[in-house]
Amino acid sequence: MKRVYSGIRATGRLHLGNYFGAVKGMLALQDSYDCVFSVVDLHTITIPYDPKTLKQSVREIIIDYLTAGLDPKKCHLEIQSTVLQHVELAYLLSTIYQVSRLEDLPTYKEKKIQYPKYVNMGLLYYPVLMAADILLYKAELVPVGIDQEPHIEVAREIARKFNSMFGQTFPQPQRFKTEGDYVPSLVGAGKMSKSISGSFINLTDDLETIRKRLAGAPTDSGVIGGELPKTGGTANLFALLRLFKLDKECIKFEQDYKAKKIRYSELKEALAKTIFKELQPFQAKRKEFENNPTLVDSIIEEGQIKCSRMAEETMKEVRLKMGLV
Ligand code: TYM
């Protein structure tokens, strides 16, 4: 059976971008593939973080996974740092990959600007560790948002290089695309992101919070008319209407826009109600897992045991091929 791997950092609660770009893809694949879904805590610590709350944040993502419908009977749930082979493989792969290519990656450049006082080796190394995550399980499909495409390309390059130096070992992973692989931000530009305040809606937000967050989303004056803009706050709100399948509303508000009589408060209210409706069952179900810590512990432990076993199989082969044993 083909393998699938994906991971999410424990930088806060899951937002709509994580849900549409990654989790929906995971849900679509868990029935027909051998899947490992991870909380990538070692990637989490490449930007400033609080060691006192990290472990709890990791657990919250596991609970979010379970609540969203990832089923430990169908897939393996992993906490990255508990499977030590990730780091071992990352180091070995780093010895065959050039530094200059890593320095050129857009995410590294962005993070350097975002955290000028926190430009660490781990940040540069991020895509190598991510390649190791995927290749450790010989995964062929990776459900992630479009922003991760450059990293998947690095994983493919590393797989090709390894295969050509040491013999055929790794498949070349492909991104599994979901319909919402680019969820726009609520601040008018860029993608929804945990690190940009005001840009996101969390899966745990109640209706009032969703309303407040949408109220802050920029729009134009509403009396411009003509064709809908392709970028900016208004375009992003329409993209969200489409993502939530509010097709009728989309047509109505587009007509209103053209006629210079669009009321953004109405549009935002329709959107808020629909988003909350989609999130409500998730929020109710989450409590079941929050109230059952023993179950969550046992799922985490089982994931570690099974994933370590799978990881060790690959590592035995890699150590041998690289001449280390
Ligand atoms: P992270 O935590 O930044 O993002 C987790 C997932 O959410 C997706 N995502 C989005 N998708 C659509 N629209 C958005 N606005 C949006 N924002 C976030 C991301 O594409 C991602 O799928 N580097 C990875 C973590 C990772 C990983 C891996 C993933 C580490 N090792 C191995 C796959 C395989 C990341 O972006 O995390």
TrEMBL record:
GO BP term, pick one: tryptophanyl-tRNA aminoacylation
GO cellular component terms attached to this protein's record: cytosol
Aminoacyl-tRNA synthetase recorded as keyword: yes
Enzyme class: ligase
Catalyzed reactions per annotation: tRNA(Trp) + L-tryptophan + ATP = L-tryptophyl-tRNA(Trp) + AMP + diphosphate + H(+)
Keywords, alphabetical: Aminoacyl-tRNA synthetase, ATP-binding, Ligase, Nucleotide-binding, Protein biosynthesis
CDD domains: TrpRS_core (cd00806)
Keyword Aminoacyl-tRNA synthetase: yes
EC annotation from Swiss-Prot or TrEMBL: 6.1.1.2
GO molecular function, one term: tryptophan-tRNA ligase activity
Domain of life where this protein originates: Bacteria
Family assignment from sequence similarity: Belongs to the class-I aminoacyl-tRNA synthetase family.
NCBIfam families registered for this protein in UniProt: trpS
Name of the protein in its database record: Tryptophan--tRNA ligase
